[in-house]
């Protein structure tokens, strides 16, 4: 866990304002809705983000060490709202992180893994790192074959925001690589990644599904072609 005076300040402020605003009844409801992946304080998203603005008020721009410290310390806390704070913080500041931040991102992806944090980390943090340093695409080639389905899902989704910069060959290869998987979240991610790229290049996605639809699950095909 890196030392960071900024992380010390932010975590202390979070500990003051987040629990005090929690709602135990809402926390119980949200924990059940999220399948018990983590306990919740019971903060609605608009409330949480308003509190986060007060936590961040007057603090300086972080460097990479600060980002790592804030994220890792937040994810070490049990309540899910702290994890959300970390994800929002990284989304805002990932441009200040180098390719060396990727191992931290992987650590977060594999910590209390569920779609609510993994998908944002994939599209905004890991995707941002790869966009800034295309050499990291080779690491995504490793992640797509990972035994941890959340790591593989991250590889599938990291190009969600790339639009015309999407490496279509890589995207299609990833989809075929994980097509035999029975995991719901991988099948959903295959369809989602194709559907998103179809907004930029519908003809390519249509041709890919026409050629390989028999290899993809019905869920993946349905998601991929939803808006075609």
Key traits:
228 residues; Leucine-rich Repeat Variant; 13 helices
Q: Briefly, what is this?
A:
With 228 residues, this protein is mainly α.
Question: What's the arrangement of secondary structure elements?
Answer:
Layout: H1 5-17, H2 24-33, H3 45-56, H4 64-75, H5 80-93, H6 102-109, H7 115-132, H8 137-143, H9 149-157, H10 168-178, H11 184-198, H12 202-212, H13 218-224
Helix pairs in contact: 1-3, 1-4, 4-5, 5-7, 6-7, 7-9, 9-11, 10-11, 11-12, 11-13
Secondary structure class reads mainly alpha
Count of DSSP helices? Answer: 13
CATH architecture of the domain at 5-162: Alpha Horseshoe
What pattern of helices and strands is seen along the backbone?
HHHHHHHHHHHHH
Q: Let me know the number of strands.
A: 0
Unreliably modeled segments: none
Globally, the shape reads globular
Which percent band covers the strand fraction? Answer: under 5%
Q: Radius of gyration, rounded?
A: 19 Å
Helix content: 55-70%
| Termini Cα gap | 46 Å
Average pLDDT confidence is 97
What top-tier CATH class of the domain at 5-162 fits best? Answer: Mainly Alpha
The biggest beta sheet is recorded as:
none
The CATH topology annotation of the domain at 5-162 reads as Leucine-rich Repeat Variant
